[in-house]
Amino acid sequence: MSLWDSYGLGNFELRAGNFSEDSRGRWYLNVCVPRASTMADESHKPSIGSVLDRSVPSVGIDLGLKSFAAFSDDRPPIDAKGFYRDLQPALARAQRARQPKRCRAIQAKSVLDAGWSAFRTMLQYKCAHAGVWFAEVDEAFSTQTCSVCNSRAGPKGRKDLGIRGWQCPVCGAIHDRDVNAAHNILAAGHRRLAEGIRVP
Ligand SMILES: [Zn+2]
Question: β-strand 67-71 against 174-176: which pairing, if any?
């Protein structure tokens, strides 16, 4: 196969892509490329100080099993079911071909992991393009910790996975499990940015 490259794609590292055909039979190659330089975008980013003092809005995002993504502001979560729906044709094919292992793989959490990974990659590029600070932070204790008083009083591990809402026994705050985690993730992101000031 050969490609006529009118866009100088040879100068880019090609990432995930696919082919599509329109109604007139014309074929397209859709491919992701990293931006040639993200340095120029650095100048568009707001100052770290303006993020930390909240004069520029920021959002924490918790990636999870029930909600694909939950947010620290008041936007609604992204439901994980939408991602499963996309997998139905592949699942049906595997079932017809009597491939139980493949069926289990498609239904497993690994699929969500792949979705999260793609989501993170896209988000990173979008943020770089839009001049937005982006950081992945350690999610340890983000679910257990009360985002209001910081006590580790929340639901723990897999055993408490079914608990969606809880009240902090220390300060009395009422939390949605995933939104509380997103608040803690946002706080961790702010700490990361603050560290960036101290360590140039
Ligand atoms: Zn609390």
Answer: unpaired
